[in-house]
């Protein structure tokens, strides 16, 4: 605990690949197995978000206990704009962090928010200048590491009790819904529109 090795860093444009079926063992199903492992970590995790955390990238950011970002960082649960159901436990984690109402709004609209709005909503715990996010995240981790390590792991276990199991149950349901919706015309339109950088035209089919 005395070294702040509890930081993960998200690269620019981190997100899930929806070009393959959700049921593909090498795709979403396998991804969610690894996601659950992240939630079972015993040590606190501080994420440094530089660039965009979109879709599955947002899910990865939310697997951390704390998030440090910059004003130019971008966040979105854009699944509804792709015509597909959220994954990576995103039906569980945003309500836990920002509250049910704000999470529902973001999930239904696919709204993209910058670092400042994410900080105001509580999605981001610390805002740093562009280019200083990783340094700020390491500083955040050092403040945690200065506390008694046994107390830290004990407190975290109490505060996060049941989260990994809730995410495991959620991802099983999410994967089923993703598989179902990926067979629809709306999904094909959403992915095509995203690739063409245009607004989608959904038909409810």
Question: What does the model show?
Answer:
The protein has 205 residues and is an alpha/beta fold. It has one domain (7-196): 2-enoyl-CoA Hydratase, Chain A, domain 1 (Alpha-Beta Complex). The protein is 49% helix and 11% strand. The protein is built from ten helices and seven strands. The chain has helices at residues 28-39, 56-62, 79-82, 93-98, 100-109, 115-121, 133-145, 149-159, 163-181, 185-196; strands at residues 7-10, 46-49, 52-54, 66-69, 74-76, 112-114, 126-127. Strands 1-2-4-7 form a four-stranded parallel sheet, with helices on both faces. Helix 1 links the parallel strand 1 (7-10) and strand 2. Helix 1 runs antiparallel to helix 9. The radius of gyration is 17 Å and the shape is globular. Mean pLDDT is 89; it is low at 1-5 and 17-26.
* CATH architectural category: Alpha-Beta Complex
Element-by-element helix/strand order = EHEEHEEHHHEHEHHHH
Helical residue percent band: 40-55%
What's the mean pLDDT score?
89
Q: What is the total domain count? A: 1
CATH topology: 2-enoyl-CoA Hydratase, Chain A, domain 1
Tell me the β content. 5-15%
CATH evolutionary superfamily: 2-enoyl-CoA Hydratase, Chain A, domain 1
* Spans of at least 5 consecutive residues with low confidence: 1-5, 17-26
Instruction: Kindly name the structural category.
Output: alpha/beta
Main β sheet profile: 4 strands, parallel
Tally of helical segments: 10
Radius of gyration: 17 Å
What form results from the Cα inertia axes?
globular
Q: Which strand order do you get reading across the main beta sheet? A: 1-2-4-7
For the record, the CATH class is Alpha Beta
